[in-house]
Write a structure and sequence with these properties.
Length: 126
């Protein structure tokens, strides 16, 4: 089992940048594929980005491709989401999630993820 703790959220103006971090504790995070998922008020959780256990494979939602970058440092048990050119529609709670099954594969399906952090709020003002 792994526990996930997100940090780095906050308020930013449109066009700005933020970096989210997700610290994993418990079972070694390198045995999991990781993802970032967001949820805006009144909407369902939406896949944002994923990375496999080695960091060699990544995948992004079309809405963030070219603007967001997911990465991981297994020595630090930490996954990052670098966000640039932020837009008001990026406003949401951002969750870090871990997938134990076939960690060499990324997944865009939020139901594939076994463990979740509590989330961090990102608000982008126009």
């Amino acid at each position: 089992q792994v526990q996930l703790l997100e940090s780095g959220g906050g308020l930013v103006q449109a066009g700005g940048s933020l970096r989210l971090s997700c610290l994993a504790s418990g079972r070694t995070s390198s045995t999991y594929a990781m993802g970032w998922v967001r949820q805006a008020p009144g909407k369902e959780r939406q896949f944002v980005a994923a990375i496999n256990w080695s960091g060699g494979s990544t995948f992004y939602a079309d809405s963030v491709k070219g603007r967001f970058t997911i990465s991981r440092d297994n020595a630090k048990n930490t996954v990052y989401l670098q966000m640039k050119s932020l837009k008001p529609e990026d406003t949401a709670v951002y969750y870090c999630a871990a997938k134990g099954d076939r960690p060499y594969l990324t997944s865009t399906n939020v139901y594939d993820y076994d463990y979740w952090g509590k989330g961090t709020q990102i608000t982008v003002s126009s």
